[in-house]
Write a structure and sequence with these properties.
Blueprint: E1 6-10, H1 14-25, E2 41-43, E3 49-53, H2 59-64, E4 70-74, H3 75-81, E5 86-104, H4 109-114, E6 119-123, H5 126-136, E7 140-144, H6 151-154, E8 160-165, H7 169-173, E9 176-192, H8 193-198, H9 200-214
Parallel strand pairs: 1-3, 1-4, 6-7, 6-8
Antiparallel strand pairs: 2-3, 4-9, 5-8, 5-9
Helix pairs in contact: 1-9
Bound molecules: adenosine-5'-triphosphate and magnesium ion.
Domain ATP phosphoribosyltransferase catalytic: 55-210
Family: Belongs to the ATP phosphoribosyltransferase family. Short subfamily.
InterPro entries: ATP_PRibTrfase_cat, ATP_PRibTrfase_CS, ATP_PRibTrfase_HisG, ATP_PRibTrfase_HisG_short
């Protein structure tokens, strides 16, 4: 039952797909495709490496507590988590997008900020949004959502949203415009600090192989 190899936490979708070339460089090939299989523990060609499939926002938690030795998580997710117990050796430059403020076309965000109005902002990224508006001295009421933030301004739940954008297609489709970029986002490798010491001989070559691809 006990597994004494290394466990890598990944989320399905873009992070999994963008990680495959990194795994290949480390000589690791998953045996199953998480999009097709319902298995949450996925073996690889290497008996000493397995993958666990988790919700993107749960990756730092699995690694923090050592249930996974390492994982790949977006900067957005890491900021919300706080990063406790995590060593973050590499920006993998995958799953790139940006965190931004968006409003409905026709909402004069600059004027609202200028006159010191309280702005209602819907977001899944409470910490990032709080820090951003506090640093600008903008008064906001934050409304926590878990997804589909674009809907909130359309039905009067909020004046603005803080969300991730890549192509801008979803914003355009919902008559929203980006008014502020908060930060560029990409995914990082996170490693459990105890694992790094205890399983150094297994982990370091994987970290090095990933680093070789990123350069
Ligand atoms: P879910 O979609 O299951 O609610 P999630 O949005 O947290 O969860 P993904 O959509 O798989 O999970 O996103 C994972 C990571 O990929 C995010 O944390 C972010 O860093 C990055 N990401 C999110 N949206 C985009 C995007 N449109 N383009 C590129 N990268 C993105
Ligand atoms: Mg998503």
């Amino acid at each position: 039952m006990a597994f004494d190899g290394i466990t890598l936490a990944l989320s399905k979708g873009r992070i999994f797909e963008d990680t495959l070339p990194l795994l290949a460089a480390a000589g690791i090939t998953p045996i199953d495709d998480p999009e097709k299989s319902r298995k949450l523990i996925i073996d690889t060609n290497r008996p000493d490496v397995r993958l666990v499939i988790v919700r993107a926002s749960d990756t730092p938690t699995y690694v923090q507590y050592g249930a996974a030795d390492l994982g790949i998580a977006g900067k957005d997710v890491l900021i919300e988590h706080g990063g406790a117990g995590l060593y973050q050796p590499l920006d993998l430059k995958i799953a790139r997008c940006r965190m931004c403020v968006a409003v409905p076309k026709g909402f004069d965000y600059a004027a609202a900020v200028q006159r010191g109005a309280r702005i209602r902002v819907a977001t899944k990224y409470m910490q990032t949004a709080r820090d951003h508006f506090a640093s600008k001295g903008v008064h906001v009421d934050l409304i926590k959502l878990y997804g589909s933030m674009e809907l909130a301004p359309l039905v009067g739940l909020a004046d603005a949203i803080v969300d991730l954008v890549s192509s801008g297609g979803t914003l355009r489709a919902n008559n929203l415009v980006e008014v502020e970029e908060i930060m560029a986002i990409s995914s990082r490798l996170v490693v459990n600090q105890a694992s790094l010491k205890m399983k150094h001989a297994l982990l370091q070559p994987v970290i090095d192989a990933f680093a070789g691809v990123v350069k």
